[in-house]
Amino acid sequence: MEKLIITRWKGRILTALFSGRTALQISLEPVEDSSLLNNIYVGRVQTVASGINAAFVEFEEGQTGYLSLSEYQPRPLNRPEAKKLASGDEILVQVSRDKVKTKAPVLTGLLTLTGRYLVLTPQKPGINFSSKLNSRKLKEDLKPLIEQALQECGCPDWGVIVRTNAGIQTPEIILRELKSLAKRCGFILEQAPRRAPKTCMYQALPGYICALRDSYEGKLEAIVTDQEDCFLHLQEYLTESQPEDLPLLTRYSDPLVSLSKVCSLEKAIAEATNKRVWLKSGGYLVIEPTEAMTVIDVNTGKYPGKKDLAETILQLNLEAAWEIGRQLRLRNLSGIIVADFIDMERPEDNQLLMKTLAQAVALDPVKTTVVEMTKLGLVELTRKKVRRPLAEQLRENEKNEISR
């Protein structure tokens, strides 16, 4: 069972997910200047770079994002008959990735509205299911119900992605969410042509509520915050969208010991940013994020092992695989990841390692893929880029503190 903690830490809202005393996920967000991720705007095209098939779009005052036109080209709101974008066109865009270091935010014209059970995709038809939903019966039962609901909402050509949490929810609740998302999306599409450029048409939920929404159904045992404003927002969201979890919400108010102290958040943050991660066996990982990729090295360290050397290395590698799965989520590492495990000679040991690593990353709500083991014995993974890595969030917080 897991516990979600929301508090303030050095002027930012800190969200931490724990399983027992072990931190699974930590994120920081500004109180006022919140993340733009998943916000939808009426943007204005500044330039179209035909050489890279992309456009640069101003979507907020002083904020310009990169829009790839390879997958989808939005239709101009001010020139709906136009087949190609041009400077000055007004288009509907969504922030698909926060700015990272010197890189501008990434935009998309393929809008998505995310709920707890479904993702609505108005420009991408078709009904798809999370790869973690393996029940054929569930898919056969839900698909016609969703198709009928889309017909009733007047949007039969829209698409839907059924999320993992739908696997243990009733069709009635799933369809109720679908109708709510469709109503909201219909309003955005209807109103956008009448709005001025740089208007925010949809503001995504705060990060701490997204963490609650994206948590796995039935796994949370408590939602705890010591912040009055966060408590009220959580209460409102739960009442409207997750009423079954409302009893889990509590307001921490002990004046003698802070919530941060009780949960040892300082220690958890320090461990989540340390280059070296010790394993219980005495081995350790070295985690090195670079501009191009993240490299993880597995070392034997103080591991005494057993008499059988092959079995010793296998057990250490398996432990490292589970810890790598946790560390990727905890540090919010993304993009290309290369793990250098200790070499093993037996093919069956390598197969078991790859299977274990796949099981470890499957616990992560963010899509993570174990690609392959190369001829050099390096394991390649990819993790979807969504929010900024925890280390970068902390660096930005330090800069803001210095500037103040």
Automatic annotation (TrEMBL):
Q: Name one GO biological process term.
A: rRNA processing
Entry-linked SMART domains: S1
Q: What range(s) does the S1 motif domain occupy?
A: 38-116
> What does this protein need as cofactor?
Mg(2+)
- In the record, what terms sit under GO molecular function? hydrolase activity; metal ion binding; RNA binding; RNA nuclease activity
UniProt protein name: Ribonuclease E/G
- Give the UniProt keywords, A-Z: Hydrolase, Magnesium, Metal-binding, RNA-binding
Q: Which InterPro entries match?
A: NA-bd_OB-fold, RNA-bd_AU-1/RNase_E/G, RNase_E/G, S1_domain
Q: Which GO terms describe its cellular component?
A: cytoplasm
